[in-house]
Amino acid sequence: MWGKGFWRSLEKYLETLYVSGIQHSHHLLRVRCLNAAVKSAKIAWAFVELRCTFGGRSIVPDLTVFCWERIPRNENGGVANVFALAPDWTLEILSPGQSQTKVTKNILHCLQHGTQMGWLIDPIEQTVFVYAPEPPTQFYDEPAASLPVPAFAETVRLQRVTRS
Description:
By secondary structure, the chain is of the alpha+beta class.
């Protein structure tokens, strides 16, 4: 299992992808459980398809996570409309027909601008590529493999799931 809350949602989402022949909407990915754990403790906040503009370009990852103190705020203290910085954690779910090269370039762009970790989830290959400044890129395709997470989420232990 992926762990509690958000990770179960991700597991169900990936199972949905497998069952449905990878016809999906990224909006099915729910982040409420993750936010319930990290947002209430003011650790981090997860956003679905949030435009981030930094380093001379904009990206819109499937999921971004920002550490609490790095979330841009408006004058009223609410979350700003513009995120002109790289996320702390970026997660991409490869869609059929989507360029893995383009998605990988986006993750590497994030890492070059301070992102702690990037995940590229390939549902068809049932593999998660983990990108971080150190160690080099790794891939996980064994069901029992424990997936690494950024330091701010270190209490979460993840394992890849496979469909039956």
